[in-house]
Amino acid sequence: MNHANLKLENPSLTLYAFHLRNRLGQVREEVTPDAEKIWQEMVKLGQSLRIDKLEALPQSLICYQHGAYSPSAENRYWAQSSKLSLLRSGNNLDFQPVSQGSDLEMKGTIIPFCVHDTYLIDLTFSSKDLVSLNQIHQLNPKGFDSIKTSLGQTFIFYAELPDGEKSCNLFLADECVKRLMPASTSLKFVAQDLLLGNPIFEYDNGETDPAQRQQILLWFNCNHLPLDNKFDKAVEHLVLLLWGQKKILYAYTQANYCVEQGISFYSNVEQNTQNFPQIANESDRLDKFKKILIELPQESVNYAVQLRDLKDHKQTIEINIQNYQRQLEKLQILSSSNLQFLEQFPSGKFFHQVQIEQNLLEVGYTLYEKLIESIRSIVAIDQVESDQRREEKEKQGELNLQLALAGFGVGFAVSGISSQVLNTPLEKLQGQEPPKAPPIEVIKSTSANVLIHIGIGLTAGLIAVMLVLLINWLLRSLKPK
Question: What is the pTM assigned to this prediction?
Answer without folding.
Answer: 0.78
